[in-house]
Design goal:
With 329 residues, the protein is α/β, with parallel strands linked by helices. It has 9 helices and 15 strands. The strands form 2 sheets. It has a 9-stranded mixed beta sheet with strand order 14-13-12-11-7-10-9-8-15, covered by helices on one side. It has a 6-stranded parallel beta sheet with strand order 3-2-1-4-5-6, sandwiched between helices.
């Protein structure tokens, strides 16, 4: 089976490295410049990978994976919709109202052939939250707090990195990282009622490296997402239930309960802590592999994708398009 990949470095290389392990697949990787494709073909020692600077060389592929710049996603989607090809498109689904309306108005048959890769839905984090809500042992989940940080803003090459550009909301840390969590939380809580984003420049005043995203949903449900490129690595997720607090951090899932826990004076104190599960620390990378495997299997079986997922995924992009944001210059 032939699989086209648009993009060859960074995140695209992770995709290529994983799916090329399947010897039943032949990968045709598109690079815009012929000099690049020639150079990569000369150094390539993997038999089932070919690099090409001709987009039409992907025309006969059963599926294509779009992992290029955000601004190019819809261009390639339009092209391969005419080829009746299965499409995996990396997030975001769209970057403005015009693109959103185009995708929203596609036919059902077209939507069923497109899979937007919000891979946290194929992660152990998704399974954890789903199971907690299904079992209902902790009361009502009413707030999710997420704190994620990396220290890359202090690297000398960050100023020339696409992550420091400000052409649109999806080039910021909120659009690049935050959209994954917005999509995940909207799956459980439904469409946002309002979203506010505060941006700040911590490492250097010339570019944005930090954001706080505050989201409100219906039924008194909320979420806060702190993201920064200007701090040591962290990936802390805290779920606030009415009867317990669940903390996911550094591969450990901790439960703090019961709610009514008192000291000797009869005053509230922090509940007892209990480790209830251990998960892989690199669950985000694993979720990418799971999502790619899911896509490839669906293509091999000539199976269609969920229209509900399609609609939910473009709505998550619309959430950011509609967001109120401050400190963004």
């Amino acid at each position: 089976m032939n699989i086209g990949v648009i993009g060859y470095k960074g995140h695209s290389k992770k995709i290529i490295d994983h799916i090329s392990k399947d010897n039943s697949l032949k990968l045709i990787v598109f690079c815009r410049k012929i000099e690049t494709s020639n150079k990569l073909n000369l150094s390539n020692n993997i038999k089932n990978i070919t690099y090409s600077s001709e987009l039409k060389s992907l025309d006969d592929c059963e599926a294509v994976i779009i992992s290029s710049s955000n601004e190019s996603h819809l261009h390639y989607i339009k092209y391969f919709l005419t080829k009746n090809t299965f499409i995996l498109c990396e997030k975001p689904a769209c970057i403005d109202f015009e693109e959103y309306n185009f995708l929203k108005n596609l036919s059902s048959d077209q939507k069923k052939r497109i899979y937007f890769n919000f891979n946290l839905k194929k992660s152990i984090l998704f399974d954890l939250i789903s199971n907690m809500l299904r079992k209902n042992n902790y009361g009502n989940l009413f707030h999710i707090s997420i704190s994620m940080s990396y220290g890359i803003a202090f690297k000398s090459n960050f100023q020339n990195n696409w992550r420091s550009k400000k052409d649109n909301i999806f080039q910021t840390i909120a659009g690049n990282l935050g959209i994954h969590y917005i999509n995940l939380i909207e799956h459980f809580f439904g469409k946002t009622s309002n979203i506010f984003i505060n941006f700040s420049s911590v490492a250097n005043k010339n570019f944005i490296d930090t954001s706080n995203i505050n989201i409100n949903f219906k039924k008194n449900i909320s979420s806060s997402i702190f993201l920064s490129y200007a701090s040591p690595y962290s990936n802390l997720i805290t779920l606030y239930f009415t009867d317990a607090i669940i903390e996911i951090n550094n591969g450990l899932v901790r439960e703090f309960s019961p709610r009514d826990t008192y000291d000797k004076k009869g005053l509230f104190k922090s509940p007892n802590e209990k480790i209830i599960e251990k998960i892989p620390k690199d669950f985000i990378n694993k979720s990418l592999e799971n999502s790619l495997d899911y896509f490839i299997l669906k293509v091999k079986n000539n199976d269609e994708f969920s229209i509900n997922d399609f609609n939910q995924n473009i709505e998550s992009s619309l959430t950011l398009i509609n967001s109120n944001y401050f400190g963004y210059k």
